[in-house]
Amino acid sequence: KAGVTQTPRYLIKTRGQQVTLSCSPISGHRSVSWYQQTPGQGLQFLFEYFSETQRNKGNFPGRFSGRQFSNSRSEMNVSTLELGDSALYLCASSPLTSGGALGTDTQYFGPGTRLTVL
Amino acid sequence: SQQGEEDPQALSIQEGENATMNCSYKTSINNLQWYRQNSGRGLVHLILIRSNEREKHSGRLRVTLDTSKKSSSLLITASRAADTASYFCATDAGSNFGNEKLTFGTGTRLTIIP
Q1: Which residues of chain B make contact with A31, given a CB cutoff of 8 A?
Q2: What is the largest CA-CA distance in chain B?
Q3: Three-state SS for B82?
Q4: Taking Cα atoms as reference points, which of B60, B55, B64, B101 lies closest to residue B83?
């Protein structure tokens, strides 16, 4: 099976702009999670989608949003970009065939999107 | 704030030696996972240990979990240059908190010296 893919891999934006990142999970995986990784804050959970529904959300402002489509592909959007949004954004998919909690199964990570805000 | 804290923050050892990393967490968990990350890339899942398990093995990896101390350790035996990476523990907050998500620790940067 193909792994988790994320597009684009690199992105440069300026403050105030918005950005949309895309994630294609492993075929058959229904859970998609997003994470932000920065040198200062480490890996932080953004949100998780399961069967098109957002189940969990981390402590991020409303500028961060996401959605999941019926084919399990997911997008996340960041509006009104700030310098501090510069980070590696990681997407992960998980089988969770029984619809169980996020921590009960392996997460398969994509390579990430490196976002730089100038 | 981070749920997990890894110790040490950085570790350098000679190839062939064993490497031990520790993870401490704050709240009750259902499961704890270990992941590896190579230099700014995506994470790779290593092992999952459930709260009712005390030890688990996978190849050269050995993970222990002590829920009374809220800590876990990852042992890599007979290290190889390819093991050079950052290692993270990840915990779920458990259903008691009504918000199942994975919280990652701060990571241990492991360098294997050939």
Answers
A1: none
A2: 46
A3: helix
A4: B60
Chain A residues within an 8 Å CB radius of B100: 55-56, 101-103
**Which residues contact residue A98 at a Cβ distance below 8 angstroms, ignoring those fewer than 6 apart?**
none
- pLDDT digits (tens), chain A, 118 positions: 789 999 999 999 999 999 999 999 999 898 999 999 998 888 999 999 988 999 888 889 999 999 999 999 999 999 999 999 999 999 999 887 666 666 667 889 999 999 999 9
Q: What gap in Å lies between CA A108 and CA A110, rounded to an integer?
A: 7
Cα dist from B27 to A43, A57, A89, A107, B15, whole Å: 18, 18, 26, 21, 35
Is B45 in Cβ contact with A106 (below 8 Å)? yes
